[in-house]
Structures are given as C-alpha cells and as structure tokens.
Amino acid sequence: MTSKISAMTAASAMDGTEAFETVQGGATRKGLVSQVVTWVLATLKASAAEAKAATSAVKFLTPSNLANRSAFAAVLAGDQTGVADNTATKAAFATEVYDRASDYDNSLYRWTPPAGAVRLSAQLRLDGTALATATAYVAIYKNGSILRVGTPIAAIAANGARSSVTTTDLANGTDYYEAFGSLDTSAGDATFTAAGVGNYFSGEQI
Length: 206
Known about the structure:
By secondary structure, the chain is mainly β. It has 2 helices and 14 strands, in the order H-H-E-E-E-E-E-E-E-E-E-E-E-E-E-E. The protein has helices at 29-54, 63-66, and strands at residues 71-75, 80-83, 89-90, 95-99, 104-105, 110-111, 116-130, 135-142, 145-149, 153-154, 161-171, 177-183, 185-193, 200-205. Strands 1, 2, 4, 7, 11, 13 and 14 form a 7-stranded antiparallel β-sheet that branches. Strands 3, 8, 9, 10 and 12 form a 5-stranded antiparallel β-sheet that branches. The longest helix has 26 residues, at 29-54. It is elongated. 26% of the residues are buried.
C-alpha cells in the first residue's frame, strides 16, 4: 500500500514527509533505510570508542611530542681503570651530553625508556697490554643480560682497540639498558679510555 502525504516527482528532493512502498513484514523502505543508517552510526561510534580505549596508553608521534621523545647520550667522565682482564665490565658513562626525558641514570649508567621501539649505540676505546691475537668487544645489555654484542675487534699490542655496537629493541617501560666492554690483555687490567671521541653510549625512541 502506498499513501502520499506530499507529492513527489523524479526531480524533486525528499523532505522527510514522503511515504515509501510497503515491503515484506509491513516495514517501509524508508523505515529500513532509517534502521540501516542508525546501525551504521552506532557501529562507527562503538568502533571509535574501542579505538580510543585501545590506544589510550599509546603516545602518538605528533610534531609536539616528537621533539620530546626519550633520547639520551652519555660519555665517560674520565678513564675507567681496573677493568678485569677478559671480563665483561659495565662502562661508567657518567657524563650526560643530553637526557631529553630524564630517564638515563648517570649513577647506575643505565637507560630505562618508555615502552616502545628503541635504538641504542655504544662505543669504547679499550687499552691495555694486549696480545696481537687478543680481541676486544662492546655489548649492549638488557636487564643485566647480553642483548647484542658488537663485532670483536683484534687488539693491537700496546694500543688496544676501539669497538662499537648498534641495535634496536622493543622496551616494555621497565626494561633497562647498559653498555659493557671487554679486552683480553697479556698482563694486568684493561682501561676504558675517555680521551678523544672514541667513547659514547646513546639511545632514542624510534
């Protein structure tokens, strides 16, 4: 059954008072369209709420917070002597070059970034009375265990070696990262030398 409240022509626009033909079950086509529109709007509203809930703890990289994301760099305050022969030893990177989010601890020489992907790099100059066949390396540790070891470098007698490492990781917000080094000497202890630009420890959110 069709009832007309206002006349319609092929060129006229609907003004909300038009009647539509009755379809199966007694509903009108207009009623069905209204139900579909209501369902779509409700679905979009629910999806938006779910998306907001799922991302409420996520920091999006906007121009504002991009400049404030966690990043640091530190260097040795002076020569670190007494490094045991052929023993992985934490490097005392006590002098901060910068610490954008104040999450690098320059007394424990560790970085605890917010949750998310991070990139870390470290380099050391390792000196000592080294054998020509000895090796030196630098490593990034995560929560006290090795995460990544740089390529071992052959130490030159009486001149030591310079070794570096770079890696990426996914931090959970409580993970901490440190830099370690080791040099196999022929006699005595090794030294992490502070002179020059051969030592650094750095990290950033990516």
